[in-house]
Give the backbone structure.
Amino acid sequence: RPCMMRFLFLLLVLCVVDFRIVRSEEEGCGCSVSRGVDAKKETRSADTQEDDDKIREQTSKGFDDYSLMVLIPGGRFKMGLEDEKSDMAYPQDGETPTRIVTLDAYYMDKTEVTNRHFSEFIKDTGYVTEAEKFGWSFVFDKFIKEDILDTIESAVKNAEWWLPVNNATWLHPEGPGSSLDTSVHLNYMSKLPPSSPSSPSSSGVASSTMNALEPKDNGRDRWDHPVIHVSWNDARAFCKWRGARLPSEAEWEYAARGGLKRKTYPWGNDLTPNDEHLMNIWQGKFPTSNSVSDGFYGPCPVRSFPPNQWGLYETTGNVWEWCNDWWTIAHPKKKELVNPRGPRTGESRVMRGGSFLCHASYCHRYRLSARSKNTPDSSTGNIGFRCAKDTTTKDTKM
């Protein structure tokens, strides 16, 4: 019996350790990974409720979000991928069939929420993110310092480039020793091409003519980068503080398209028109080497690339963006949907836009119709968000 007890105790310990060795979604591409915690449908912890109450009291102190937003005109559009036989399509993601959607006017952030703005929220409310509560978050292996990398013994199945790092948070994106006051650390696993004498343009817009062979933001701080290591719950809390909300999936796609129809990207169908890079995705061979031909190795500062026709920046690439909707691939069969909000319950939340880790060789989800998902408590180094806000009658007459 003592031997049996020791065996059971050892088994329990192994289960606890393996709790962090989660798998990437079977139908996914490893662009982002789930924390692996069972998602209770619509269940709120006492800590989360306490945070909500505190945020509700502080909402009036949120900064003037209208200066950070664009008024998106109401309208009607085709949501989803029209060409079901496209080589770019992921049938398992529910990109098809297309749906006719009508939306009222609303506001949308011009950019992803930055570290600078998220820090104001933290100072104002004392909010603690879920990465801080859990004590760890997922970090891309090329960014982890060597002394930390050598201590990590687990990885994500089928996405070994994602490693769980203790104390990785929005403020310390690569764990202990990392800071928003410095650029991302590239370890010995990174195969970065030799530097060139080229320099960034005065406009700050990435261009292939710069022949950039090292990150444009190398040596610079990251306060104007999109905040990362934030869960859906964290993003929702921030939006509440601002008196805003997360966009619905339909609102996200409509705004990201910027009025364009039947287009793959926010500017058209050509990924690099005139050989110019217009978004931040992986260049080279993933995950071993990145040519940095778009100017960035990791997330880039907001407004690094030209906006779409409605003034929204980096709606594709850079970081995934949380949407309010629960995930489903069983879309309503109605001929037309009006202000759809998605399923009432679920286990994962929708993410849109792709990230700097996307590459056509394994993940072509940096398209306007592409979708992904993650559990509401998950956080990684390539997930962020932007806020939306309802309009008033006065706004719609502007």
Observations:
- The first strand starts at residue 69 and ends at 72.
- The CA atoms of residues 199 and 210 lie 7 Å apart.
